[in-house]
Amino acid sequence: MTTYAVIGAGAVGGFYGAKLAQGGSDVHFLFRDHAHHVRTSGLDVRSVDGDFVLEDLSTHEEWSTLPEVDVVIVAVKSTANEDVAPRIPAILRPGGAVLLIQNGLGSEPLFAEALDGQGEVIGGLAFINSERTGRNQVTHMGNGGLTIASYLPDYVAAGITDWMRAIAADFEMTSVPVQLQEDLVLARWMKLLWNIPYNGLSVLLQASTAEIMNDPQSTELVEAIMAEVIAAAASDGRELPAGLAELMLDATRKMKPYATSMKVDFDKNRPLEVEAIVGEPLRRGQGHGTPMPVIETLYRALCFTNARITSS
Amino acid sequence: MTTYAVIGAGAVGGFYGAKLAQGGSDVHFLFRDHAHHVRTSGLDVRSVDGDFVLEDLSTHEEWSTLPEVDVVIVAVKSTANEDVAPRIPAILRPGGAVLLIQNGLGSEPLFAEALDGQGEVIGGLAFINSERTGRNQVTHMGNGGLTIASYLPDYVAAGITDWMRAIAADFEMTSVPVQLQEDLVLARWMKLLWNIPYNGLSVLLQASTAEIMNDPQSTELVEAIMAEVIAAAASDGRELPAGLAELMLDATRKMKPYATSMKVDFDKNRPLEVEAIVGEPLRRGQGHGTPMPVIETLYRALCFTNARITSS
């Protein structure tokens, strides 16, 4: 049986970890805080797929008490990666895998470097729309799943690996649909097509997705940003599916007013994932010679805002 | 003796009107509110050039009681132009002049149309840094003056006119230095080189000039916007003086933290002068084929913010 550790057991890691444990996997959780509360009261999952409380789970407050596992699920914010990556080798058995469930681009190399060839890095993309709603509670509102794809240096498409299949098999014991992708960076560009405009503009304009879509000027900004993402992905050798932008615009128009993860971070005065979500894609596209003036403007404005947060 | 009416006797109109009256000109003020207070207590001017209280001034609460004058000074926000312009012919003697002291571009045609050839339109640019600091008080902190230039259709350079000289002569009786410019749109582009980046970013980033200049990313944004203004002006046939951008950057870096007029409007939940300061220059530059992606992004974001203000 595959053993898991979950680093960053919040809205995303807490949900996926709880699902795996509920499905019968052996899962160990690292909680930054509230470990005691989770241990005594269980992890309370409110989900569109059915509520449950996971009890008797293996909770840890320190890295040092975590056992060595086959798969480390990292679901911290990308802003914490520098702290987390170097600690992974101590808890990952040689030949194991890191599943990095994060937004944005460019985080995998740091983990690959930390593993130094002693394990596989798999990128994960969450489509679950979950939120931490209490000390030991996660609320899951979406109905998407988890997309995973293995990482190779410079994001060369890695195909479907044994670890990907093993993780997917464990999730088959749960209600979480897992998609296996051969090309991690294609999957990341597809998600960035939504994440760059909506995360970025929600902070820049202090607006919900609904407010953004109800105004013609901000809608134009979304479309201009999407066009730049499509061009950047193309210059990176990834053709995004035709009509994907229109599909996302339409879906977002129909969504309930939604605060993006970056807006939630802003509201809580937490560091923003500017580099992973905006800076890294910008540098990658510009590195291929793609003009991205709207995203560059957005990026600089977000850097300003983020500097204000991190220096306060 | 030239007779004047001042429409919009706030921070800018109140200051220039008071100076003219103090210098001996015959000036009639239209006050939207506080006319009674000004009539009984006088107009209190706190100025780096010396404080004074202007008493016994001709104050009006209604357009209908204003006498016919030679020169109407219009110093309302550009957002009020549609209301103000049609009322001018009733108080301007045929052959008189409108002096439009406003920020931005594109407001003169509306007044020229209202005058229908029965008078001259002169654009005015204020460099005084003044604020309304009480019901009957204006505080003047800058040490610049007033630049004026006559308007001809499509902003063809109009040279120095008799009305310009007459107005300058009246200001010679005051401490306000007046510059006569032959080319109104050149003067306007020069001021826009400061106004577009600093007004726009102060609202977009919710920041003072000092905060903007203390961050490398927002400073880059200022520079990118200035480069687009310079290119737009060049495509409009106006070469901005070499080194002007650097001069402004440097001067702004040395200024005390300063809330731009657009930021003050934002803070007071008043309509923003988005069209005059950003939209009109953008359309003019783009009309000449100049790419202005950073200013266009700024414009759309400000339109979003302004729509939120005007619909609230």
What do you see in this structure?
- The structure is a homodimer of 312-residue chains.
- In chain A, α8 (216-235) packs across α11 (274-287).
- In chain A, the strands form 2 sheets. An 8-stranded mixed sheet of chain A has the order 5-2-1-6-7-8-11-12.
- In chain A, β11, α5 (162-171) and β12 form a beta-alpha-beta unit.
- The relative contact order of chain A is 0.12.
- Chain A has helices at residues 13-22, 35-41, 81-84, 108-115, 162-171, 184-204, 209-213, 216-235, 244-254, 261-267, 274-287, 293-310, and strands spanning 3-7, 26-30, 43-47, 52-54, 58-60, 69-74, 92-101, 119-126, 130-134, 137-140, 146-150, 178-180.
- Chain A folds into 2 domains: 3-182, Rossmann fold; 186-310, N-(1-d-carboxylethyl)-l-norvaline Dehydrogenase, domain 2 (Orthogonal Bundle), CATH 1.10.1040.
- The first copy, chain A, contains 12 helices and 12 strands.
- Chain A is an alpha/beta fold.
